[in-house]
């Protein structure tokens, strides 16, 4: 554990972290809710995917990135990655209890509230699917619903290269989901990359299946946490700045980041 101080400065940026570009689906909700805030987005695409690595490795990398954000002077952190959240958020809260830190988790609760007796598919990375955190979430909120976890290795890679609508992606999705066609009420997108391919999920499963993701809930939660600590910028028409960094330094990643943010 490093000797890093928690920043108590309203004007400091909020850090948003993902294994790559998926967290942009959370960032866009944050920008809508808190347009005056400066946001510092960091994607670790050089080490992606996280979802097929060991929990220890993901925990170590996530903690080290969060410590860098604190050293840079960020006032709060959003772990916009379900995989990194399930591996590291509890440990980070123990290490830095004063830091406003919010992780994203699969939106099982709202899906079950909408379909208490429904068939609900949870799509996520292999690590998220096999973690205690998801089992606990399903035990706590699953109630009478039939909640079906589905590991989707390989799906995030499409989004990482900007492939969000192609015959190849559609074929991949059909293979992944064909056995559920006509059998579902709802789908929970439990990886922040997946909202960018929601259209293809809908094409395969049909429009009658409702899709849930945790982006808006996570944005609301960091807003609440910062507000509670007097760290929100309020009553201003100022437009916040968005800074993007990635462990792969390429123009292609920068262009894709802005493209996804506008989607
Ligand atoms: N975007 C990440 C998530 O929400 C995972 C993608 C990966 O495997 O790195 O789980």
For the structure shown, list the relevant keywords.
2 domains; 263 residues; globular; Rossmann fold; single chain; four-stranded parallel beta sheet; alpha/beta; five-stranded parallel beta sheet; binds D-glutamic acid
C-alpha-based Rg, rounded: 18 Å
CATH architecture assignment of the largest domain: 3-Layer(aba) Sandwich
- Order of helical and strand elements: EHEHEHEHEHHEHHEHEHEH
Approximately how much beta-strand content do the residues carry? 15-25%
Structure notes:
The chain is of the alpha/beta class. It folds into two domains: 14-104 and 215-261, Rossmann fold (3-Layer(aba) Sandwich); 108-213, Rossmann fold (3-Layer(aba) Sandwich). Helices cover 43% and strands 16% of the residues. It has a five-stranded parallel sheet, sandwiched between helices. Strands 6-5-7-8 form a four-stranded parallel sheet. Helix 1 links the parallel strand 1 (14-18) and strand 2. It is globular, with a radius of gyration of 18 Å. The chain starts with 13 loop residues before the first strand and ends with a helix. It binds D-glutamic acid. D-glutamic acid is lined by residues 18-20, 22, 48-51, 81-83, 125, 128, 156, 191-193.
What is the fold's blueprint, element by element?
Blueprint lengths: L13 E5 L5 H10 L5 E5 L11 H17 L4 E4 L2 H14 L5 E3 L4 H7 L4 E6 L1 H5 L1 H10 L4 E6 L3 H6 L6 H11 L8 E4 L8 H8 L4 E4 L1 H14 L13 E5 L4 H12 L1
Parallel strand pairs: 1-2, 1-3, 2-9, 3-4, 5-6, 5-7, 7-8
Bound molecules: D-glutamic acid.
């Amino acid at each position: 554990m490093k000797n890093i101080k928690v920043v108590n400065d309203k004007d400091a940026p909020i850090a948003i972290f993902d294994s790559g570009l998926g967290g942009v689906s959370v960032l866009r909700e944050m920008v809508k809710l808190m347009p005056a805030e400066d946001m510092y987005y960091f994607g670790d695409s050089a080490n992606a995917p996280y979802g097929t690595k060991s929990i220890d490795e993901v925990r170590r990398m996530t903690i080290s990135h969060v410590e860098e954000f604190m050293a840079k002077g960020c006032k709060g952190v959003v772990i916009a990655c379900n995989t990194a959240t399930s591996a590291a958020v509890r440990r980070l809260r123990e290490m830095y209890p004063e830091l406003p830190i919010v992780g994203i988790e699969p939106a099982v609760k709202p899906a079950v509230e909408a379909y208490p007796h429904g068939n609900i598919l949870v799509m996520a990375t292999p690590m998220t699917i096999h973690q205690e955190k998801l089992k606990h979430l399903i035990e706590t909120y699953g109630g009478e619903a039939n909640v079906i976890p589905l590991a989707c290795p390989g799906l995030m890679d499409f989004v990482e290269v900007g492939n969000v609508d192609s015959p190849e992606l559609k074929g991949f999705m059909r293979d992944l989901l064909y056995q559920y066609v006509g059998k579902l009420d709802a789908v929970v997108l439990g990886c922040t990359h997946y909202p960018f391919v929601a259209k293809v999920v809908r094409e395969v499963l049909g429009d009658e299946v409702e899709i849930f993701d945790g982006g808006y809930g996570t944005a609301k939660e960091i807003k609440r946490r910062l507000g509670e600590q007097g760290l929100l910028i309020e009553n201003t028409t100022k437009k916040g700045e968005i800074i993007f960094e990635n462990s792969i330094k390429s123009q292609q990643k920068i262009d894709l980041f802005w493209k996804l943010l506008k989607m």
